[in-house]
């Protein structure tokens, strides 16, 4: 069930003749305001594409061809100079990956230079992972090129007014370029790294990368992407909002091909590469990867190479104001990477601001509200520090978390928050939650197989999406659980926990995870994030082990009251390399899990709007709507306090219901009936009779013109609490296709806000009869499976009144028979059912009562037996049906109903049967049998007419 929108309330509150005018005014104002706010400031875009040759390398003398596109506002010129943006793409992408964002920046009045990084697409050269002598020097030469353009504003000779924006691979370049070239005026690095060696070789107790646990899943994708350019992770689709990594570039060849540029060999592999499996990677990078991938450990030379491509060592050289945007759903570069960058840049006195959002390499751009917030922050930052417009953005901290589902587009909704100071991963305060459990042995499987699945590149929340299908292997993990939380806790930062471990080999590789477990036992691993640990010098007995503190990856999550925390320590993980030799570790958890919390105020949705004037206009409109809604709701609440004594025990009473549309069409003119406990009432009528309109009014999906509806004596209005006593399937089921049937039921129940204990999942699933298919994704369901799941959803809370519109639609005969039994059983416990159906035989066998509607009016109501008994139809078995039909057609008031198998069904309409038989005999027609016809179908046809089409119900 859903409540009406504010617009529906607004229409309800205004007099009918003023609704159209008022609605038109609101629409025009909103359309004008939104258009004014987001319409590009320039008069258009012009582009220039070229292969630019730049010189880079350690001595700055090695030429490389870069595939570039330069975007300009059409009115930019030497007389009207504009600031510039250098827009970098993600790993595996090309300049085409950022086309849409380039065009948006041009609309904001910037010149934008995009290029395909060396080693990718049509550009030449080899991949050095943002090496300072290579990719970074390439970008410096592009700054030279921008400074020479007459349309670009400059700070001095050879110094363009420029900001650098990029995500992932492009974000790392933005940081390294700003450290190497002070001509950069501002940077916006997104979802990128601080220390590439720690990112790929993390160790969560503070160990060096040489002791880290190799992140083989992500590393394999990186080097696979470099081996076949265009097939790897694409990074940001644009510079202003993170897009799902791994999506192919929007244009450009899937492999280097003939136009890959100089310095490439067959298949795009660089000439002289250490190994053809590394494709266009430079030989030293390739060799380091192969050593790490083969052994699972990094030597110091490999760490030094990765650190040359890391901002960690040069943050103190960055003077360009920096906006760091990092994703919470990111198993490649988690929040700790941005935290380290922020602290290093701020230590040098450079303005820095941090923003976390719900997307990332595994979560894409996040919900629309989140991507809009990131876009707003980016434009605000560049407008001040590059364009020189607007007040200083400040250094406040913003973050967001998933808040639920959007009722309109059925997508996720994120709520943003703001705090004055950036607290880092430690948070403003800590909440200690005790976890308990004995010391437990866990087995390390040989060669890491089978392995637990907690994260898969591009799908960090796999565990939560599959709801326990992806998880830990029995015997390979230990569990420590808390008691149910007495109140909710908002986690924002990196939790910590103290562990002890023992190993017969003196060494252990462990994976520490923190699950959120709901009261039904469903465990969710936030964004699939784990803390890999390598411990050495371990004793053989856990009692002799020293405690170690493990810092888990930063998360943002609200753990609700009644939920428990589950600390899991596993010996394997599919995304990482583990020791090949089998052994058994023993692990114990000491004390409590320490959860960081951050206090902040919610960010209004108007913060995503680019202009404060528009925000003010929208706020004024919103205030007006709120006032109208408040007045109407107060009136409805006042009316809803009373209980009509006559209907207090009646599940449903419909009184003189009328629905007339603005064009004068009357869908329902006078509908009046009741549904009592224990009844299964069938709502019947031809197409267009008014059945669907009646149900829509009943569920609050449209407002009646006149009449009242009472549910257990309370007058029904949108948002009324009594609606919780109704379960409904009206206008077909609506499910999230990427979730399973069971997950959809759970998500629906959470959205109702009712206690989990009130849901009857076992009963509902028994009703659905889907078996193991309930764990399959909805997108793989047939129409009948969706229908059965929708009926189960309507019955979840065992509502006292169940309203179903065509419940047998899409069901096969055995399923229809089972549905018949379900509805009859459902009404035996004092509950009631109202069902609309066109299958008259099913209604006759299922329903205790029926209401027949025709042309917006009730033409019959009561027990099914009475309605059938009132039917005047008679079945005649005659020797010549054709001649008999001709005779009967001449009799006044007698009507022949559709024939069946040589028999005649006749509505005698009060004419004596003996008179009808006499006329047939006089005509020489033999009459073999005359029996009363007592089917609901005949009664229905007699009531509504054979050719009735109702009133054209909408």
Structure description:
Residues 239-250 have a biased composition (Low complexity). Pfam families: ABC_tran, Peptidase_S15, PepX_C. InterPro entries: AAA+_ATPase, AB_hydrolase_fold, ABC_transporter-like_ATP-bd, ABC_transporter-like_CS, Galactose-bd-like_sf, P-loop_NTPase, Xaa-Pro-like_dom, Xaa-Pro_dipept_C. This protein is elongated. The chain is an alpha+beta fold. It contains 23 helices and 39 strands. The longest helix has 29 residues, at 612-640. The strands form 9 sheets. It has an 8-stranded mixed β-sheet with strand order 1-2-4-3-7-8-9-10, sandwiched between helices. It has a 6-stranded mixed β-sheet with strand order 31-32-33-28-34-35, with helices on both faces. It folds into 5 domains: 1-39 and 620-638, no CATH class; 45-419, 3-Layer(aba) Sandwich (Rossmann fold), CATH 3.40.50; 428-599, Galactose-binding domain-like (Jelly Rolls); 645-862, 3-Layer(aba) Sandwich (Rossmann fold); 872-933, MTH889-like domain (Alpha-Beta Plaits, 2-Layer Sandwich), CATH 3.30.70. It is 28% helix and 25% strand. α2 (16-38) packs antiparallel against α13 (612-640), α8 packs across α9 and α16 runs antiparallel to α17 (783-794).
């Amino acid at each position: 069930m859903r409540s009406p929108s504010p617009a529906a309330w607004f229409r309800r509150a205004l007099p009918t003749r003023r609704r159209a005018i008022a609605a038109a005014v609101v629409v025009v104002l909103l359309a004008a305001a939104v258009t004014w706010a987001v319409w590009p400031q320039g008069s258009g875009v012009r582009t220039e594409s070229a292969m630019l040759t730049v010189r880079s390398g350690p001595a700055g003398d090695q030429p490389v061809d870069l595939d570039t596109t330069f975007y300009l506002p059409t009115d930019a010129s030497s007389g009207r100079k504009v600031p510039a943006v250098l827009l970098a793409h993600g790993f595996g992408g090309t300049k085409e990956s950022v086309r849409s964002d380039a065009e948006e920046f041009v609309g904001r009045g910037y010149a934008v230079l995009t290029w395909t990084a060396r080693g990718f697409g049509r550009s030449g050269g080899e991949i050095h992972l943002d090496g300072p002598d290579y990719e970074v020097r390439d970008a410096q030469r592009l700054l030279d090129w921008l400074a020479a353009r007459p349309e670009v504003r400059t700070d001095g000779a050879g110094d363009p007014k420029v900001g650098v924006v990029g995500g992932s691979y492009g974000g790392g370049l933005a940081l390294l370029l700003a450290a190497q070239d002070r001509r950069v005026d501002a940077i916006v690095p997104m979802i990128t790294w601080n220390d590439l060696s720690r990112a790929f070789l993390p160790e969560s107790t503070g160990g060096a990368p040489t002791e880290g646990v190799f992140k083989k899943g992500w590393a394999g994708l990186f080097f696979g992407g470099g081996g076949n350019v265009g097939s790897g992770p694409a990074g940001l689709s644009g510079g202003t909002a993170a897009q799902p990594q791994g999506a192919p570039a929007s244009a450009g060849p899937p492999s280097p091909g003939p136009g890959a540029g100089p310095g490439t060999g067959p298949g795009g592999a660089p000439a002289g590469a250490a190994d053809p499996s590394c494709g266009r990677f430079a030989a030293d990078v390739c060799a380091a990867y192969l050593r790490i991938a083969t052994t699972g450990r990094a030597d110091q030379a490999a760490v030094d190479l990765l650190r040359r491509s890391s901002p960690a060592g040069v943050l103190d050289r960055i003077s360009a104001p920096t906006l760091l945007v990092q994703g919470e759903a990111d198993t490649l570069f988690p929040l700790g990477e941005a935290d380290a960058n922020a602290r290093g840049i701020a230590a040098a006195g450079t303005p820095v601001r941090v923003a976390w959002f719900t997307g990332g390499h595994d979560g894409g751009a996040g919900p629309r509200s989140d991507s809009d917030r990131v876009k707003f922050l980016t434009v605000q930052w560049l407008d001040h520090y590059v364009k020189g417009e607007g007040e200083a953005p400040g250094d406040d901290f913003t973050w967001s978390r998933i808040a639920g589902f959007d009722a309109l587009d059925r997508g996720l909704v994120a709520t943003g928050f703001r705090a004055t100071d950036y607290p880092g991963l430690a948070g403003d305060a800590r909440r200690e939650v005790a976890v308990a459990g004995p010391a437990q042995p866990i087995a390390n499987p040989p060669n890491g197989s089978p392995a637990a699945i907690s994260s898969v590149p591009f799908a960090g929340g796999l565990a939560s999406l599959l709801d326990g299908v992806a998880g830990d292997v029995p015997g390979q993990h230990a569990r420590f659980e808390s008691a149910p939380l007495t109140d909710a806790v908002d986690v924002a930062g990196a939790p910590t926990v103290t562990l002890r471990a023992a190993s017969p080999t003196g060494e252990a590789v462990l994976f520490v995870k923190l699950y959120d477990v709901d009261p039904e036992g469903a465990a969710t691993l936030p964004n699939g994030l784990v803390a890999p640990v390598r411990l050495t010098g371990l004793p053989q007995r856990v009692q002799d082990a020293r405690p170690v503190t493990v810092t888990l990856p930063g998360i943002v999550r609200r753990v609700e009251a009644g939920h428990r925390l589950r600390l899991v320590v596993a010996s394997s993980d599919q995304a990482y390399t583990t020791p090949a030799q089998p052994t058994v570790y023993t692990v114990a958890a000491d004390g409590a899990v320490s959860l960081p919390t951050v206090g902040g105020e919610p960010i209004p949705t108007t913060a995503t709007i680019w202009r404060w004037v528009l925000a003010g206009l929208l706020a004024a409109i919103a205030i007006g709507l709120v006032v109208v809604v408040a007045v109407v709701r107060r009136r409805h609440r006042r009316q809803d306090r009373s209980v009509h004594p006559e209907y207090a025990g009646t599940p449903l009473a419909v009184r003189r219901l009328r629905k007339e549309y603005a064009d004068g069409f009357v869908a329902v003119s006078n509908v009046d009936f009741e549904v009592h406990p224990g009844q299964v009432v069938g709502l019947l009528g031809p197409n267009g009779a008014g059945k669907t309109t009646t149900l829509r009014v009943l569920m609050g999906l449209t407002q009646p013109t006149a009449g009242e509806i009472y549910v257990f004596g309370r007058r029904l209005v949108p948002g009324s609490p009594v609606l919780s006593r109704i379960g409904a399937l009206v206008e077909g089921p609506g499910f999230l296709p990427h979730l399973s049937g069971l997950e959809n039921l759970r998500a629906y129940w959470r959205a109702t806000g009712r206690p989990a204990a009130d849901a009857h999942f076992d009963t509902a699933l028994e009703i659905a009869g889907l078996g193991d298919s309930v764990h399959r994704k909805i997108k793989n369901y047939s129409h009948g499976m969706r229908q059965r799941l929708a009926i189960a959803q309507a019955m979840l809370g065992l509502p006292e009144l169940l309203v179903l519109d065509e419940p047998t639609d899409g069901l096969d005969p055995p399923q229809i028979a089972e549905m018949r039994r379900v509805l009859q059983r459902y009404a035996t416990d004092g509950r009631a059912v109202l069902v609309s159906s066109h299958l008259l035989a099913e209604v006759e066998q299922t329903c205790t009562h029926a209401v027949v509607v025709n042309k917006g009016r009730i033409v019959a109501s009561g027990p099914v037996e009475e309605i059938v008994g009132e039917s005047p139809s008679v079945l005649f078995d005659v020797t010549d049906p054709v001649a008999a039909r001709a005779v009967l057609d001449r009799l006044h008031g007698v009507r022949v109903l559709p024939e069946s198998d040589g028999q005649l069904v006749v509505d005698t309409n009060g004419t004596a049967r003996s008179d009808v038989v006499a006329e047939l005999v006089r005509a020489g027609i033999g009459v073999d049998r005359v029996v009363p016809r007592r089917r609901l179908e005949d009664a229905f046809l007699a009531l509504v007419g054979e050719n009735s089409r109702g009133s054209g119900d909408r």
